[in-house]
Amino acid sequence: MKPTNTNCIFCKIAKKQIPTDILYENNKTIAFLDINPVNKGHTLVIPKEHYETIIDIPEDLLIEVIKTTKKISIALSKISDGITIAQNNKKSGGQEIPHLHFHIIPRYKNDGLKYNWPTKKYKEGETQQLVEKIKNLL
Ligand code: AMP
Ligand code: ZN
Q: What is the rounded distance in angstroms from the CA atom of residue 38 to the CA atom of residue 105?
């Protein structure tokens, strides 16, 4: 059985159960306008099946989502000056809707949007330890 979640708003969008401005769809993915756009044309790309995060989704389906993300990015790049792609995972990662999605945000010269998270510093030797720790998890 295909994964679906009856309470999930993006599953409802995938099943055309709520009105949505759909830009593109194929048998695995669907792309639609975000209702609260950061810039006009802000688009979300989702798999039609319900997977919560990039950690959960099977690789072959993720590839389909990325292919649609590229297709939409190419179109949006023709009406904008740049493209920002974002993808949030889990509440602490900024994810509000727990159904995997890529944000594609068309960018314009002087649109005033700034990626300005404060940065941190590593202590001496900290990166080696961290690299080892992460490598062991791959
Ligand atoms: P995130 O915080 O990464 O989970 O982003 C969720 C995004 O979904 C937000 O940008 C919302 O504006 C958008 N969103 C929520 N409900 C809808 C909807 N019904 N149609 C289109 N976009 C939606
Ligand atoms: Zn869903």
A: 7
69 backbone φψ class: left, alpha, beta (φ>0; ψ -120 to 50): alpha
Q: 57 C-alpha to center of ligand 1: Å?
A: 19
The residues placing their C-beta within 5 Å of ligand 2, an ion, are 5, 8, 10-11, 50, 99
Rounded CA separation 75/132 (Å): 41
28 C-alpha vs ligand 1 centroid, how far in Å?
19
**Running DSSP on this structure, what letter comes out for residue 34?**
-
For residue 13, give the ligand nearest its CA: 1
Q: How high is the mean pLDDT of the chain?
A: 96
The pLDDT tens digits of the residues spanning 73-131 come to 999 999 999 999 999 999 999 999 999 999 999 999 999 998 889 999 999 999 999 99
Averaged pLDDT, 60-75: 98
Task: Find the mean pLDDT for residues 38-60.
Answer: 97
Residues with CB under 6 A from ligand 1: 9, 20, 32, 34-36, 44, 88, 94-97
